[in-house]
## 1
Amino acid sequence: MSDDLHIRTARVDEARTVLAFWAEAAEGTSITDDVDGVTRLITRDPQALILAESGGLLVGSVIAGWDGWRCSLYRLAVLPPYRRRGVATALLEAAEERFTAVGGRRGDAMVLEANERAQRAWSSAGYRREERWRRWVKPYDRPADAPAVTEAPEPAAPAAGHRG
């Protein structure tokens, strides 16, 4: 690994930079691959998007999502010229340190079926494929002019006399 590799969390103002990086280094796209999606991720969980820099250049990323119950890993990506130089290992170590610190007990990684290189990388990092599980998805369409929801509203106070 390069001596100048720096691991840190992303800032909200870096959403466009991260998206450009993913377009170059990541496999596939997601419905949330837009400035709003990345901004909401960083705003909601400032520790989730972990970046690797070398000489000031963004060379790697991983999303280490923690919802209080599960540890989820997405978007492990490294720029092609920096692959096989320890960048992914450093990113996963940072993600696993985060998960351990918050009490996480297992990391679940999303890996494309057709991405054999990624499957080898995850396997060499100690992750194994779970044959009994499959991902089920349903996209939720949101009108372009609808405001993004960034946090849940406060629950209403119970009605007088209610013992809920």
Note: Confidence is low (pLDDT under 50) at residues 149-164.
## 2
Amino acid sequence: MSLRESPPRTPPPVPPAAPPPPRRPAARRRAWRRLWRRLWPGLRRVLWLLPIAAVAAWVVGHRSVVEDGVGQALTADARWLAAAVASTALGFVAVSFARQGTVVERLPPGRLLVSQFAAGAANHLLPAGIGGSAVTVRFMSRCGLPPARYSAALALYFLAEGVARVGLLLVLLAAFPGALRLEEVLPERVGLPLVTILALAALAAVAGAVYAVRPARRAVGAFLATALRDARAVHALPSRVAALWCGSFAFPVLQAAGLVAVALSLGLGVPVAHVVLAYLAATVVAAAVPSPGGIGSVDASLVVALVATGATVETATATVLAYRVITVWLPLLPGALTLAVLVRRRII
């Protein structure tokens, strides 16, 4: 009997080494948070000095404008200039009321007022109101509002402020139809129909781009849903309605009152209602030019508007320079110092 040879045994296949498990997003977030906690104390020591350095650089860059405005202000009636300073200070109170009216929650009134004073300084350092909006958003987030809520509050504030400003302008244009003689200071081809067509075309282009991109359409839809829900909640409370709309209307009125006071101090020779109309028209037009704090755009628009109401170019320029010193340059350094203190104390 012969023994059959058994075939050689092959070793079992070795399974390939398993790849290391991918790092989970939660672990990555924890690593970023640890890194941020290490870096933030040093960054905070630098950030609170940035507003002061930015103001110093801005003043040096616009030294001639500041000197001319201060020189014009020194020759004016001090009592009217004090009234202009008071109306400018009250403007921060009006903005604080309007900001409170955009949310249902009660914000700390003292800190809200101080934050808006600091936001005024930040608004003159970045274009299109980005600085002031960033300070306000940071303050509201510190008060416990989630991003969707404070974004909706910011949109409601700009909407109410725009409605108030344009509404006042339309009322004054209807009451004084011949007050602004723009045809005397603008080229013949520049007119309201051309500006309206360009604005509508820009809005249509933006709306079409948003609608064509599905993620953008969804994001805008979610934001609008949150904004409408918050707007309904705010308007269900009479106290918030009064704060929002009274503050929104009071702010441009107080700013226009400051311009009227400066015009009276320098003897501009233009009726008060026409000066208010010139201010509203100039600020509405200058809002389309995203310059920091309206520097340049507001100045030029105010001069053009005052000349269109009948003032001379020299007197209008002197009035605008003095007015901008009071409303922009005078509060800029205290506002920057306040902003630095708020950042250092982690209020914003």
Note: Residues 77 and 281 are 26 Å apart (CA to CA).
## 3
Amino acid sequence: MTTADPAPAPAPFPPAAPGGGPTSGGPLRTLFCIGVTQDFFAADDALRATVAAAIPPAFDRLGERFGVTVLGTLDDDQLMVGAAPAWPWTSYVLADVPDLDTVAAVCGIVRDTPVGDGRLWRYLRIEARVGRPLFFGTA
């Protein structure tokens, strides 16, 4: 009777997918999480329309402006009503981003975009989660 060689111990973390992730030197896989604040819902119809009109151009052409590759988006506005102070967020943008400075610059859109007599940050929150491509769940 022979005994088989023991199986090798699994690595503590799977290797990063080719070309991506904080430890590989590739782009940062980033999930931008965007929530609507209570100030948006407290505003009158005209101001809400002004805010809604300011959002698309603020986040337009992320690739051209920041070198970001948008991989996908999700808007939960049909099934979520009211302010989103934290998870679950109202909308998400999944992207590959060149570096942390660029992640901060995209988040800065909310800080810098003028709306009425204020800035977009009064009506939206943004938070970025940075990781690496998942090693399973591929197409």
Note: The CA atoms of residues 36 and 62 lie 20 Å apart.
## 4
Amino acid sequence: MSTSLSTYDGAPELTDKQEELLRIMRGLPLRERLLRGAALSDRYTLGAAPEDGKATQPVRSGALKLAEHDAEHGTAAGPVEPASLTANSTLDDLRTYIRQEYAAHRAQTALKEAPK
């Protein structure tokens, strides 16, 4: 599976994103909170070695919580099915899921914000 970083091209700087997320978290729907939290964890740990469990645990946890929510509510947007992810999934598979869902979210947000 792809672990392309282009998903985050144009995303706000990490410190800006974290501050924004903390400021607005209470007002977001649950899925968006899960998605943004997982994407933030993914971005923060990009340089971490996959075998560094302490560094990558937030990615694993975030991806699995998002996938569980998506499987339960039918809200996944990409080709990787949320039910295909388990606690034994590779870090690359979990990151791919986060990134596909984040990319779909950004595309949907851009459509909503486009001038009419």
Note: The chain has a mean pLDDT of 87.
